[in-house]
Amino acid sequence: MTEITTEKARIGAPSAQPFIDGFTEEGESLSPINAAASKAPLAGEAVKSHSHGGGVGIPDSSRAGRLTSYTLADFKPLTGLEEDWRFTPLKRLRGLHSEVLSGTAPTVTVSGPDRVTVETVARGDKRIGSAGIPEDRVSANAWENFSEATVITVPAEFEADTEVNVVITGQDTAAAAQHIVIVAEKFSKAVVVLDHQGSAVVSENVEIVVEDGATLTVITLQEWNDDAVHASSQQAKIGRDAKFKHVMVSLGGDLVRVTPSARFTGPGGEAEMFGLYFADAGQHLEQRLFVDHAVANCKSNVLYKGALQGRNAHAVWVGDVLIRKEAEGTDTYEANRNLLLTDGARADSVPNLEIETGLIEGAGHASATGRLDDEHLFYLMARGIPEDVARRLVVRGFLHEIIQQIKVPALEERLTDAVERELALTEN
Amino acid sequence: MSTLEIKDLHVSIDTEQGTKEILKGVSLTIKTGQTHAIMGPNGSGKSTLASTIAGHPRYNVTGGSITLDGEDVLAMSVDERARAGVFLAMQYPVEVPGVSMTNFLRTAKTAIDGEAPKLRTWTKEVKDAMQKLRIDADFAQRNVNEGFSGGEKKRVEILQLELFKPKFAILDETDSGLDVDALKVVSEGVNRAHAEGNMGTLLITHYTRILRYIKPDFVHVFVDGQVVEEGGPELADRLEEEGYDRYATGAGAATIAAAQA
Ligand SMILES: Nc1ncnc2c1ncn2[C@@H]1O[C@H](COP(=O)(O)OP(=O)(O)OP(=O)(O)O)[C@@H](O)[C@H]1O
Ligand SMILES: [Mg+2]
């Protein structure tokens, strides 16, 4: 890739230094902040009743200081100037931030191993609120308006040998709210696929509980129709020695904004977060993720890759990684790579790494946006491969690194085909 | 019988300091069955000649011509040249992330032949060719050149030469970075391809070492963008002893001895 912008940092600093010298790249925020709010990243009842995560003395720029609340009214109406909305065209949200979300929620159909339970529950169910608190107005609006939730539970010690398929099909385009809870109980193992299709205008909260020792993969596919508008907050709470893998794929929809988060609540946890997006002319695909290293000795690895083509194709990637004071022994790396296939497309890429302790294994980030590398194309063409085929080979290869993380063959094939269809559009 | 004809070729590149002329009138005719060695010091323009024949966009042809059996090569795109039968084994093959060797080889073969090779025979052909070049079978699953050592990259270039069966092979310092064993293996590959009788070879090298394994019919000495002397294989022997010094036109011309040090 010909790199237009790039920044890279890798800190391996198991020293006693309380902060790291000379780490001054753009996107960094290293103030030793926020001892007060750095307790419990998410703590059930206590937080529910005291819903503001923020407080006095917490700089706005710190991810730890962000307002969290179950109550819509706690969030001010959006102006578009807010840090976390500055890239989003609010006009195209179709009321997700401003209207009562009373439309019909997309239908949810779940299939999978028998022992995985699927329940439709009312708002009062005790599992609701077990992994997530809205962090923005659109998410809070969904929380305030959803009427029933789907709860999927992988029972303790059960190892699912086939994936759990959750097909979420949009019904119409009246603004709606959706709520899904996924619980992987202790020492269970499963792959859950959230497969978003059809036309919808929906704000969705997905709560993910990965209990101690569990291994859970959540794959969220946004293959919406062209007119869909979708905001999805997907918050995972990761227990002791638990492994969580999140794979996000956004291909379809007019505006899709996915905000996944992974919060460690016990030592020994691992989170891998992968993303693939392919933005066409006029499409806005936004992904903002948050990894909260709140406890010691956890690992996280983030890689998002995107391809963009056509006029006003817009992709946004913001990666917030917070290593709190108590998160000694953290090892984290995050990277975002974008490939601009045509003029007129735009990718914004902002890695934010906040480090409050020097006692870590490593922390780094990288971000690069570029065009197809002429030398790659030359090599392939010098072997007789026509330019259009060569371009496709390279882009397919670039994105395949994410697809191969899915490890569900049928799904990998489906997404490979979907990418192929996107690429076929480039030539027109 | 085919002919690749280079006539009075002038090539320049755009640098930050402005346009720089690198090839200053090169003429060369290669016929099927012949092996021509081009020898010259660092920076004399050998790779420029090779890349220009292949059509690398960095090089601007400001004069002269290249034809293949009378067809204007300079008017062809890079991929058209390859399909017309020109193959460049590169001095520094690039890594192409995300594209597997298997997929790449099949796609290229399909493009060159105009139809997909029969899967069964193709797979076997690739396997055999890899074996002969002592390339591990698992390289087929790896991405093109990714993480290959310098020597492995060169073997993979020759693998392609054997599989694609070009009319003209241009080997740009295929010998550099190879130990003696690898040099033999790679030379044998070139000789096998040559023995099929449908290929002409332009062998670019800095050292005479490879000429012990691949016998040139003609040797051209290249200095400062021009052919300064031509002869038979005996010219290579003389260069071995005397170096490029006697052609030195100024600073920058190195000797073989110095280069080998
Ligand atoms: N992209 C470039 N920018 C600036 N100068 C270049 C560029 N490419 C080639 N040159 C210059 O052109 C001249 C010829 O280079 P070339 O690579 O063709 O030489 P060579 O004979 O292949 O050398 P070597 O034996 O080192 O491979 C050199 O002076 C080189 O510095
Ligand atoms: Mg060279």
Describe the protein in words.
The complex is a heterodimer of chains A (about 425) and B (about 260). By secondary structure, chain A is mainly beta. Chain A has helices at about 45-50, 135-145, 375-380, 385-405, 410-425, and strands spanning about 1-10, 105-110, 115-120, 150-155, 165-170, 175-185, 190-200, 200-210, 215-225, 230-240, 245-250, 255-265, 270-280, 285-295, 300-310, 315-325, 330-340, 345-355, 360-370. Chain A has two domains: about 30-370, no CATH class; about 375-428, no CATH class. Chain A contains five helices and 19 strands. The longest helix of chain A is centred in the C-terminal third of the chain and has 18 residues, at about 410-425. Chain A is globular and about 60 Å long. Chain B is α/β, with parallel strands linked by helices. Chain B has one domain (about 5-260): Rossmann fold (3-Layer(aba) Sandwich), CATH 3.40.50. A six-stranded mixed β-sheet of chain B has the order 6-7-8-3-9-10, sandwiched between helices. In chain B, α5 (about 150-165) runs parallel beside α6. The longest helix of chain B is centred in the last third of the chain and has 16 residues, at about 180-195. Chain B is globular. Adenosine-5'-triphosphate binds near residues 40, 43 and 46 of chain B.
